[in-house]
Amino acid sequence: MVAEGKRWRFAMVCSSNMNRSMEAHSQLGRAGLDVESYGTGTHVKLPGPSLHEPNVYDFGTPYGAIHDDLRRKDPDLYKRNGLLPMLKRNTSVKLAPQRWQDNVGDGVFDMIMTFEERVFDLVVEDMNNREPRLMKSVPIINMDVKDNHEEAGIGAKLAVELCQKLEAVDGDWEEIIDDLISGFEKQHKRRLAYSISFY
């Protein structure tokens, strides 16, 4: 339960903390919301010259360094496929991709949003493996968003709207979450899944 007038803290999570979660992070930030973003993969993976040659980086590698690395490798390819502009955007949001499973020190979130079912399952599993100390409930909401730049932009707009609706809830979100989600699904023709975990 979030006290009246208290700002919510939101976490946006995708696989590599590159596209969907970062676009949402950027848009939520511009909307004045308190937001962080993460990935759940073992590494940060970006498309390479072919399907079998992805560019792989460790979490914590600065977006600027990844940008410069790709620009060195093939500036035309990575400009054309949108990776260089995406990385430039990312550098204006934060320093480097962060891994959700390593974020325990980042404190407590009031809502966690994922953009892919597999990522949702990993976040739920990770939360269930943590020892609940505060007995503070947190909704984890998944909205499937294709991992391309256009869909990420649409998904981020919807994420802003959903987060604003939740932050505006007067009273206990647990009492209205079902109605809020089904109303949102009807309005936007998007299916959401959610689970409740505890800090």
Automatic annotation (TrEMBL):
Its main location: nucleus. The keyword Hydrolase applies. Its EC number is 3.1.3.16. It catalyses: O-phospho-L-threonyl-[protein] + H2O = L-threonyl-[protein] + phosphate; O-phospho-L-seryl-[protein] + H2O = L-seryl-[protein] + phosphate. Pfam families: Ssu72. Keywords: Hydrolase, mRNA processing, Nucleus, Protein phosphatase. Belongs to the SSU72 phosphatase family. This is RNA polymerase II subunit A C-terminal domain phosphatase SSU72. It comes from Paspalum notatum var. saurae. The lineage of its organism: Eukaryota, Viridiplantae, Streptophyta, Embryophyta, Tracheophyta.
